[in-house]
Protein 1
Amino acid sequence: MLHPKCRYDNPVWILGSVRFITWICDVNHSCLLVSSLIIPTNSNLPTTSNMRSKQLGNTGVQIPELGIGTWQYRGGVEPLQAGIELGASFIDTAELYGSEPVVGQAIRGIRDRVFLASKVSPRHFRRHDVIKAAECSLKQLNTDYLDLYQLHWPNYTVPIGETMSAMERLVEMGKVRFIGVSNFTAAELRRAQSVLSKTRIVSNQVRYSLIDRTPEEGLLQYCNAHQISLLAFSPLATAFERMRSSDPDDVLGQVAAAVGETRAQVALSWCVSHPAVVAIFKADKVEHVKENCAASGCELSAEHLQLLETRILHSSRSRPERFLRRLARRASQYAGRNLGNATAMDHDHNKNQGK
Ligand SMILES: NC(=O)c1ccc[n+]([C@@H]2O[C@H](COP(=O)([O-])OP(=O)(O)OC[C@H]3O[C@@H](n4cnc5c(N)ncnc54)[C@H](OP(=O)(O)O)[C@@H]3O)[C@@H](O)[C@H]2O)c1
């Protein structure tokens, strides 16, 4: 594992020459190896953090174990920049969130220090639309490449082979470094991987927290076994009070007092205690960002982990429940719903059509 300083303080020319080598290579596994050397470098901001990193999938690329999400984000550039400075330089957005412009502003001048992830909405899973959606995201984010581009959730009305071949095309074009998915089951992941010919899926972004443990029903094991990073969204249960109300004995408070952390820090530390898991939190408040970033590096004992896992009320969707939910999603997608709302790309398109 590289120390964050090793990742960020290399000279700029290394980035330039490695990019050049990547560009002249075709996209295949050896190329993945080369692109794994493309490491954010041209920092002129100090790295002041003890943020730990983890390998992204099997890529050899290290990313922070805590990333910052921007769904329903209203914090402006300051919290994002504070997080980047504290080592949480993995920023997650999506064409659906409407937050790409503010992320673009926050990373201006420090793009190469940031691991930038966005997502394409299921309504854009046709080949031509995937390419257009990525280009629109790049424009919104004011950058020329995404580190990670994810399918936001499955679309059962478009053949996955068509979508994935467009994702591979984006990698060939140098617009995307790595391909990920989100809200995929292990079976859907396997299927999506099987239609890729030159690249590998490096991550699956799913809901995972102390109170929602569904990934433990097979997905986490699958990701571990296949070197796929599990990016845990909503690690603080979307509203931290929800987690507090699932913790009637205040186990979080007890563990927090024992290890000298806050409750939110314990919840995040628990999440990233799983080797394959990177947690993505959202915080509009700078003080929350600082608190959360300081959670990295906290080691919870086996006894504390067990207390948290057994005494906090949690749910975990059973296999039949997951199956029924997929069935309902399939039905609603064939009825034209559950594909994501209109995005900046659709507005642009409508404007160009004179609508
Ligand atoms: N792929 C998907 O389908 C999907 C779905 C949902 C989310 N996500 C991603 O995951 C990210 C995070 O998930 P989420 O937005 O559901 O939220 P979350 O991180 O689970 O929780 C966010 C809430 O926790 C609060 N908070 C943050 N730090 C805190 C602290 N130290 N103490 C107390 N409260 C704290 C925030 O408050 P303030 O904002 O007031 O600071 C906010 O109200 C999203 O932004 C998005 O990028 C992906």
Note: The chain has 16 helices and ten strands.
Protein 2
Amino acid sequence: MVLLPRSSENPRPFTHTVPGVLTSVRDGRRVVAVDIETWSAVCKRIYSCDPSSAPVMMDEIGRQLGAEMAARQKKQTPFAEDAMAGMGPSLSEMGWGEFVIDHDVMKAFRLGRSDMISIKIKMCAFYRVNLGGQSPLCHFVVGLMKGALSELQGERLRAWEELCTSKGDDFCEVVVARR
Ligand SMILES: [Zn+2]
């Protein structure tokens, strides 16, 4: 089961098989869409139940989703930068925020001319879930970018959040780098 935030822009066909729950079958697997309030409640619960483990858990959930999306995208587009550019609109459509990925920066990273890439996320979904705080909080998005780029590059990359709307920045910025 994959949890995705339901957004009004999401055009995928969903059916109600359980009253009140939107479900769809993709690649033979059942996908359950949850609205942003439900997602928010789930996130808050995870963070409040175990504050020390929550960042790692959210990072790992994001990493798996990012790797899966990238593997799917890689089949359609031959180059990593094109695949990554193709993922931006999909992530926005799902409701995670507006991912700004520079094609040339991505290409330089793929070719090894740079060891770092930064991704700007406007209207990050985690700002809307309103977790609050003074430090970067988008562990899920950090995992998402780490998983996607690691899969596209075929190497283990690390990632962290430099700027975050939850601590007052205008947008979130995730940096992905080679070890
Ligand atoms: Zn953030």
Note: The chain has six helices and eight strands.
